[in-house]
Structure formats: C-alpha cells, structure tokens
Amino acid sequence: MYPPPRQKTDFEQVVVDEWITGEIEEIKYDMEHKSQFEGKERIRAAVRFKFKLDGYEYPHYSRWLTFNYSEKSNLFKDYLEPLVEGAKPDFKFDLDELKGIA
Questions:
Q1: pLDDT-derived band of residue 6, with 50, 70 and 90 as boundaries?
Q2: Domain of 72?
Q3: Which of 14, 25, 29, 82 is 20 to 30 A from 59 (CA-CA)?
Q4: Whether the predicted model's global pTM rises above the 0.85 cut
C-alpha cells in the first residue's frame, strides 16, 4: 500500500548571511503546546512569530518559543530585549504590541 498523495507546498530559502528587513505580521499562541525537553514530553504555553520579509514572497515563521519572559528564555533574549526599549526579565508587556513592528 502507498501513502495518499500530499498537497505540494512551495518553500523559499532565506539567506541567513545578510541583513534582512521585514515586519512581524502575526503572533500565534498555543497555550497547550507539546514539546520535548531532555527526552521528556511537556505541555506549556508557547508563542511563534509570523514574519513578512522584504524581498520574499512567502511568509516565514519563528520556531515555537516557551511563552515566558525570564532572562534565559529565547523569547526574551532574541525578541523582547532587542525590540522593546527598557525590557527587563519578567516585566509586564503585552506581546501583541509587536505586531507590525519593522
């Protein structure tokens, strides 16, 4: 038996060795996201960003990130600290304010 045919999806490679401009188009939340950590499955709140990158036709997404603002979280280190002036670990901030930021 063969598997059923899949719908074809177009992909485009993002060049990572140059500066790319764009904007955060949407923020997706999953309050019961399943992930693996040290071989164990866990369920936690997670968030992911949808980007519209200049010069690219298709939208691009970040990976799922644990939804917390601790100093060690990738969400805080990679997105909040560089984009939000005065960002400090565990500060009160509505993530939806990043929509449309370029």
A1: confident
A2: 22-88
A3: 82
A4: no
pLDDT over 90 (residue 35): no
Does residue 30 lie within any of the structural domains? yes
**CA dihedral of residues 48, 52, 54, 58 (deg, nearest 10):** 100
**pLDDT of residue 7 exceeding 90:** no
Residue 14 lies in a domain: no
SS3 23: strand
Q: Which helix (H) or strand (E) holds 81?
A: helix 81-83
Q: What residues contact residue 36 under an 8 Å CB cut-off, 6+ apart?
A: 42
C-beta of residue 24 within 8 angstroms of C-beta of residue 84? no
- Count of domains for the chain: 1
| In-domain check, residue 9 | no
59 within a domain of the structure (yes/no):
yes
